[in-house]
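Students often ask why we bother encoding 3D structure as a string. The short answer is that it lets us treat folding as translation between two languages. Here is a chain of 328 residues written in the first language.
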Amino acid sequence: MKISNYDFPRKIIDRGLSITPITIETLQVNITKLCNQTCTHCHVDASPWRKEQMSLECVDKCLEILAENDCIKNLDLTGGAPELSPHFDYFVREARSLGKHVMVRHNLTVTLDGNPRTGERKMYIPGFFAENRIEVISSLPYYSSYFTDKQRGKGVFEKSIESLRMLNRKGYGDGELILNLVYNPVGTFLPQDQKGLEADFKTKLEKNYGIRFDNLYTLTNMPINRFEKELRRQDAYEEYIEKLVNAFNPEAVKGIMCRNMISVSHDGKIYDCDFNQMLDMQACNGNGGLTIFNFDLHNIVNRKIKFGIHCFGCTAGAGSSCGGQTVS
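And here it is in the second language, the structure alphabet:
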């Protein structure tokens, strides 16, 4: 079957399913595409050469939205490496002062590497996270150096372990300050069972490195941007898409993340999810695109979600979301 014939909305209709927004519990904000790493699977296409940064005006508008909408309980900061935004600390402190739960997608190595453009050190990050009781969500492709460095670059595993130890020393991973790890398969595979893999990670990291963490989230690699280019280079794109389509699980539809969150880009545009953002599939309701500057909760909740072939990634196998698998 040709790739063009893989129709996600048709699959949903044929199965008698419906995907509509329920509420907005989480405001996920991509505040920069600047990153100290250049990972092979990165759907953001982040790197040390990216210049996109959210302005202070946009940050303040996001804070206004958080303040005015009690249903939005969570602020999920992502990037790039979100800590490299000049407004990161301010955004975190102000959101916490509003009583919001703040999550940060932290790549671990930024603590040691700092800002690749300015050389600014970031060794204060573990203490800052602990002071503001941030939930830390960090990618670690595997509990050994080979697969981690293969996906994220030479020396990343060693730096990640040191950064995890720094977080542990600040109280993370002991049940009160939350430290979650994220696993992406290295290559064209679906994630393993999340519960079993979490047990393996906890055993190996504790035994070999003395590392403690709370939860492991397994995520499916999305066939967009840098990972799509790698798939096409290997002439494996169609095979991977077919794997996702064949693994479609109706039960995973219930927990699809675009039903209770929205994604905001550095320039204030609103998207159904981070993946749609990277494909420039801006959320709409009526005649125009939704932004933080025309934010209206009713319009957001009553929008029609935009779908693409990549959506099969969220519904393959046990499902995939920013909080890991969606089917227990």
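Translate back mentally: The longest strand covers residues 101-106. Keep this in mind for the problem set.
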